[in-house]
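Design a sequence for this backbone.
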């Protein structure tokens, strides 16, 4: 949820945000986050969670993987654009 913390500061005057939560890898032990699991200060009415698994890791210690990770993520998203989604843990997720 660390990447979601900053959403409270994005257009704070706008309530009831719609959020697309994209994660490289799995969602972790807690699973995907729905509107009820948003950090304090984030008023979300709907959340779309997307997990892109099996992509090369990139970050401060893996910068060389950045271009490969971006290409793998784009290919993964393009491959599932027409695949039906499933409902998450709660209402509007």
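Sequence:
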């Amino acid at each position: 949820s660390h990447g979601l913390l900053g959403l409270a500061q994005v257009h704070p005057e706008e309530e009831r945000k719609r959020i697309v939560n994209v994660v490289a890898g799995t969602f972790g032990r807690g699973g995907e986050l729905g509107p009820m699991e948003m950090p304090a200060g984030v008023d979300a009415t709907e959340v779309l969670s997307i997990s892109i698994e099996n992509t090369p890791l990139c970050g401060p210690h893996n910068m060389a993987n950045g271009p490969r990770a971006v290409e793998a993520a784009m290919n993964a998203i393009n491959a599932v654009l027409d695949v039906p989604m499933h409902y998450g843990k709660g209402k509007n997720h």
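The longest helix spans residues 66-79.
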